[in-house]
Automatic annotation (TrEMBL):
One of its GO terms (biological process) is riboflavin biosynthetic process. It comes from Nocardia speluncae. Residues 5-183 form the Bacterial bifunctional deaminase-reductase C-terminal domain. It comes from the Bacteria. It holds the Pfam family RibD_C. InterPro entries: DHFR-like_dom_sf (IPR024072), RibDG_C (IPR002734), Riboflavin_Biosynth_HTPR (IPR050765). Gene3D superfamilies: Dihydrofolate Reductase, subunit A (3.40.430.10). This is Dihydrofolate reductase family protein.
Length: 201
């Protein structure tokens, strides 16, 4: 049976990106980059918006405000291009142009449930906030990992990650600090039907 990992990189205040900031907020270091390179192979799951963004980067589109990719960003996009990817969308048209992508049109929750039951190895999300939220609500997420970068983007932050989430109890299973400043925390999540003291009035 496959394991499902929801995997986010965030600012300290829970944003997935920020206007005027480069990838990794420009704060990645050698320890973090080495750890990224050591990650096991996984099938990457994403929605249409993440596909459009990342496939654009793979085709050479550069984020607004940058003249070119930094080497670390380029290496990350190249690695993702080589990975097996499943894209959930009813709006995209097949065949997808980005290498190693499979388009799935049916309900993502049911499709991932079937993938977990029939597959082996690791399934991992990239971006795709609404997809991750749906998979968590359905109780399909085995591990929830967040790498927090030491920046608060209260004025420029975009894509608030946890808006619309249910209440979730988190049991820590791993933690690590990279380069003396980047914090990884990994949890086993359990969706709560109500807060510990009962349903709020």
């Amino acid at each position: 049976m496959s394991e499902l990992l929801v995997d986010f990189i965030t600012s300290l205040d829970g944003y997935a990106s920020g206007e005027g900031w480069s990838g990794f907020w420009g704060l990645e270091g050698p320890e973090y980059l080495a750890w990224l390179g050591e990650q096991p192979e996984s099938t990457q799951l994403m929605g249409a918006n993440t596909y459009r963004l990342m496939s654009g980067f793979a085709a050479g589109e550069v984020p607004d405000g940058q003249d070119e990719f930094r080497p670390e960003e380029e290496a990350s996009v190249d690695e993702l291009t080589r990975a097996s990817k499943v894209v959930f969308s009813s709006s995209l048209e097949a065949p997808l142009t980005w290498a190693n992508c499979t388009l799935v049109r049916e309900d993502a929750v049911e499709a991932v449930r079937a993938m977990k039951s029939s597959g082996v190895g690791l399934l991992s999300t990239i971006g795709s906030l609404s997809l991750c939220r749906s998979l968590l609500r359905a109780g399909l997420v085995d591990r929830f990992r967040v790498v927090m970068f030491p920046v608060i983007t209260g004025a420029t932050g975009a894509e608030r990650i946890y808006d619309g989430y249910p209440d979730v109890a988190l049991e820590m299973v791993d933690h690590r600090t990279f380069d003396g400043r980047i914090q990884l925390v990994e949890y086993k999540p359990r969706v709560l039907e109500h807060p510990p003291l009962g349903v709020p009035a």
